[in-house]
Amino acid sequence: MVGLVRRIVASHSGLVLTLHRVLPPEERNLCYDPHLVLSEPAFVSLLQLLQRDYQVVYLEELLNNPRSFDGRPKVAITFDDGWEDNYRIAFPHLLAYQMPATIFACTGLLNTSGVLPEERFARLWNQCASRSKLDELLADLNHWGLGRRKNLHLLPLKRYWSQELKRMPLTARLLLLDHFEQRYEVPPVTSRRFLTWDDVRIMRQTGLIRIGCHTSRHATLTSETDRDIRRELEDCRSSLLKHTGVVPEILAYPNGMHNQRVVDLLRSTGFRAALTTQPGLIGRHSNPFALPRIAVDDTTVTADDAQFSSSQTSVYFLSSWLRSTATS
Ligand SMILES: [Zn+2]
């Protein structure tokens, strides 16, 4: 571990961590995707590790100058989507450790009982699987013009179709989901998934938590028209201005998806940086609109359900770092 820290410091680089949800172990199974969950004990171990070996700073500070001056690499903590447990579970720990973090929120989902389009598809799929109706659903999806790519066999079926849907413009995808949810009688969601604006206000008042843009409705920007991209960005920014008084200048790409057209639109609407889901370190010469991050969740920090330990986190950071430097 000491060797890893030294190597990161020597490279004048910093790390941005990506988290989504922090849940108590008994609630982990309530999340539709295990890749989105870091269990609460693991989160506390992570904060202890960061306190010991890293310097946790605001994201803006890391981006302005990733170089460390005290021998400990700089780290910025980010959360994507704006899940309610960021306030209920993660925030009290961040407060106790006095560690700053940025939450990239989908403003159209805050304060609502709305559901992420990706979760809606997972619920639809599970409903059909439990009723032996998957063949019917696949025929329907084909009928709607999806599933024409040749690499169907390369991914697990559910993941393949989930990716296919992300290629649709969001408005069309939401209409399709409305239709299928009715047709296959998917039960409505009753519990709140996302933060309220009061949660946001309380967290921001501590000065530790900042809010960034993750679009309004979790749109995969590469699948949208220029006009719809602008609308997603503007809706998100105007909501944040209204509720927090601050216009965000940093975006986290939903699903990490971006291309040159999206970057040009971001620049023209006043953004100055954007974060991807590509693993890697951030240095002085990193492309500000393709900044890498390191995902931290239960599936990446532990191989099984065993108790998380800080040494496992170190191993994960190490392997992520080696992977990213090997490919750069
Ligand atoms: Zn997201």
How many helices? The count is: 13
Query: Tally of extended strands?
Result: 10
Question: What top-tier CATH class of the largest domain fits best?
Answer: Alpha Beta
Output the helix-strand order: HEEEHEHEHEHHHHHEHEHEEHH
Shape: globular
Assign the CATH superfamily of the largest domain: Glycoside hydrolase/deacetylase
* N-C termini distance: 22 Å
Proportion of residues in β-strands: 5-15%
Helix content: 40-55%
Features:
single chain; 328 residues; alpha/beta; TIM Barrel; 2 domains; six-stranded parallel beta sheet; two-stranded parallel ribbon; 13 helices; 45% helix; disordered C terminus; binds zinc ion
Structural features, described:
- With 328 residues, the protein is an alpha/beta fold.
- The chain has two domains: 2-113 and 194-327, Alpha-Beta Barrel (TIM Barrel); 117-183, no CATH class.
- Helix content is 45%, strand content 12%.
- It has 13 helices and ten strands.
- The protein has helices spanning 2-10, 40-53, 59-64, 85-97, 117-130, 134-143, 157-166, 170-183, 197-205, 226-244, 260-268, 298-301, 310-327; strands at residues 15-19, 21-23, 37-39, 55-56, 74-81, 101-105, 209-213, 250-252, 273-275, 294-295.
- Strands 1, 4, 5, 6, 7 and 10 form a six-stranded parallel sheet that branches. A two-stranded parallel ribbon has the order 2-3. A two-stranded parallel sheet has the order 8-9.
- Strand 4 (55-56), helix 3 and strand 5 form a beta-alpha-beta unit.
- The radius of gyration is 20 Å and the shape is globular.
- The structure holds zinc ion.
- Zinc ion (ZN) is lined by residues 80-81, 214, 218, 254.
- Zinc ion binds next to strand 5.
